[in-house]
Amino acid sequence: MMTDGGCMTPQSEQEKVFQWINELAHPETREAALLELSKKRETVTDLAPMLWHSFGTIAALLQEIINIYPSINPATLTAHQSNRVCNALALLQCVASHPDTRTVFLQAQIPLFLYPFLQTTSKTRPFEYLRLTSLGVIGALVKTDEQEVITFLLTSEIIPLCLRIMEFGSELSKTVATFILQKILLDESGLSYVCQTYERFSHVAIILGKMVIQLAKEPSARLLKHVVRCYLRLSDNPRAREALRQCLPDQLRDATFSVCLQDDKSTKHWLQLLIKNLELGAVPPTDPRQIGMSPLTS
């Protein structure tokens, strides 16, 4: 139904959404429906519950993911394949973000279906887009600051996957992966997990150190913000703090990033706190929430 101005009414738009959801169940109409729904994911209220509770929809989205597994090793993924599966991933991100579907999304262990994409190393645009969109689903989960999300992620291999992307990914992928690690560390169980063994801590510290060296050559204030925040949170752990006194990169102690951070008051503040925490005899705040955080922006 159209109004006099030629625009769809809310009722007719909702009918179209229901039609597209129904079309996901049929292979011949699925691709077009994926595209239309992915465009609507931020404007349609309660799209996530509609997707979750409609018959066969989640199975169809998982089928889209599984269908391209053969194209990631050997790396033959095309731009068309990447765009199509990323539309499916965008709908799963919608489900991951919604408070009414997040828990069941985790209980079904759907994030694990995305991990093969995060393991890819090809630098081509289709693979980069695939990794970035997959990271977006995990990023949507950790943004909620919910314990069940961190508990789930700590039982999976997300930390080493993020660390590899932090080392080898594009700047944007590195930023999202570092944000995910930061959110895990800000949870008490996440910090304890990373600092439980020297091997885990050293893996994180080595990658962060490499990132600092790279950032000194190719500055990115957005990425540096999350790197500094990870270091600051690690310094809340006594054993990690002792280790960081020895291994914190010199570039964070001197004026290397002064120009990069001149307009970023929060990161400058975090860096000052980090240096203060690493001074002998310093006792950092026990509650990470005492330190203001700004959300990741694209």
From TrEMBL:
Principal cellular location given in the protein's record: cytoplasm
GO terms of biological process kind: mRNA catabolic process; regulation of translation; regulatory ncRNA-mediated gene silencing
User: Which cellular component terms (GO) are annotated to the entry?
Assistant: CCR4-NOT complex; cytosol; nucleus; P-body
Where found in the cell? Cytoplasm, P-body; Nucleus
User: What residue ranges are annotated as transmembrane?
Assistant: none
Q: Does the keyword Cytoplasm apply?
A: yes
Keywords in UniProt for this one? Answer: Activator, Cytoplasm, Nucleus, Repressor, RNA-mediated gene silencing, Transcription, Transcription regulation, Translation regulation
Coiled-coil stretches noted in the UniProt entry, renumbered to this chain: none
Tell me which family the UniProt entry assigns to this protein: Belongs to the CNOT9 family.
What protein does this entry describe? CCR4-NOT transcription complex subunit 9
Which species is this UniProt entry from? Musca domestica (House fly)
